[in-house]
């Protein structure tokens, strides 16, 4: 007689960029192993593990390469919390005395935050000429780190990967039809002000972040720490 199989529960999650709720199953021991292994590697290993695990756990077809990074991080956090536990104990450093405080964070409360200054993805460069921006995806983590503030070079890199369409009046230009050199030439003609408007879109895109308040157990000062991005939630 074969061993009985263990029934796996399923859940649903609403992402910001997809209409239907996404059904998924939690992490199993085999996925936790993939994750632990990747945490010993570099960012690239982590990205690949994340993609692998998400594909394993989703109960629908979904191209994770196309998901904006914030949706993907949110999905991953929820997959893990449904399996490992809804709370995570993190070591947070006091900004006054640098003492490490073990703090329990309710992962269920972590949400995607929208900026009150969110910018439309259609950015007009002149009266007639505009570009359509899209949010960075997980594959762009290879090119830069989201922990840094965006400077000129990283922003130019992001723009390169986040623009598909340029339009002028009725005319549409699909950037995939042009060489890297032609694309670079186009973007380098921008003025500082036009560049700033694009940067504004990325500065104000939705983010996975969570504010944690606690009293430091060493110096007793009140602390407010903002956790942002996935690595912050894996102590
Ligand atoms: Zn302290």
Topology, pairings included?
Blueprint: E1 11-13, E2 22-24, H1 29-39, H2 43-57, H3 69-84, E3 87-93, E4 100-106, E5 111-113, E6 122-124, E7 129-133, H4 152-162, E8 163-168, E9 171-174, H5 180-188, H6 192-203, E10 207-215, E11 222-228
Antiparallel strand pairs: 1-2, 3-4, 5-10, 6-7, 7-8, 8-9, 10-11
Helix pairs in contact: 1-2
This protein binds zinc ion.
Zinc ion (ZN) binds near residues 96, 97, 99, 219 and 221.
What does this structure look like?
With 235 residues, the protein is of the alpha+beta class. Among the domains are: 7-85, no CATH class; 122-203, no CATH class. Helix content is 31%, strand content 24%. Strand 8 and strand 9 form a beta hairpin. The longest helix is centred in the first third of the chain and has 16 residues, at 69-84. Bound molecules: zinc ion.
Uncertain spans: none
SS element count, helices: 6
**DSSP helix fraction:** 25-40%
| Number of extended strands | 11
String of helices and strands: EEHHHEEEEEHEEHHEE
Oligomeric category: single chain
Instruction: Give the bound compounds.
Output: zinc ion
Structural class: alpha+beta
Q: Average pLDDT value? A: 88
User: Any idea what the shape is?
Assistant: globular
Euclidean distance between termini CA atoms = 43 Å
Kindly estimate the percentage of residues that lie in beta strands according to DSSP: 15-25%
User: What is the radius of gyration computed over CA atoms, rounded to a whole number of angstroms?
Assistant: 21 Å
Strand order of the largest sheet: 6-7-8-9
């Amino acid at each position: 007689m074969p061993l009985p199989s263990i029934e796996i529960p399923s859940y649903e999650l609403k992402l910001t960029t997809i209409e239907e709720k996404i059904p998924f199953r939690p992490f199993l021991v085999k996925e936790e192993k993939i994750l632990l292994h990747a945490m010993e590697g570099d960012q690239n290993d982590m990205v690949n593990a994340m993609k692998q695990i998400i594909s394993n756990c989703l109960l629908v077809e979904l191209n994770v390469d196309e998901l904006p990074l914030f949706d993907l991080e949110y999905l991953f956090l929820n997959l893990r919390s449904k399996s490992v536990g809804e709370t995570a104990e993190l070591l947070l450093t006091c900004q006054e005395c640098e003492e490490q405080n073990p703090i329990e964070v309710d992962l269920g409360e972590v949400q995607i935050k929208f900026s009150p200054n969110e910018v439309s993805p259609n950015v007009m460069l002149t009266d007639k000429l505009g570009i359509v921006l899209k949010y960075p995806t997980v594959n762009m983590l290879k090119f830069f780190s989201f922990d840094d503030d965006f400077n000129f070079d990283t922003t130019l890199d992001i723009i390169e990967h986040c623009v598909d369409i340029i339009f002028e009046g009725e005319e549409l230009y699909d950037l995939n039809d042009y060489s890297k050199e032609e694309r670079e030439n186009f973007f380098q003609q921008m003025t500082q002000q036009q560049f700033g408007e694009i940067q504004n879109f990325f500065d104000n895109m939705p983010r996975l972040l969570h504010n944690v308040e606690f009293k430091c157990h060493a110096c007793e000062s009140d602390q407010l720490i903002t956790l942002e991005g996935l690595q912050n939630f894996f102590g």
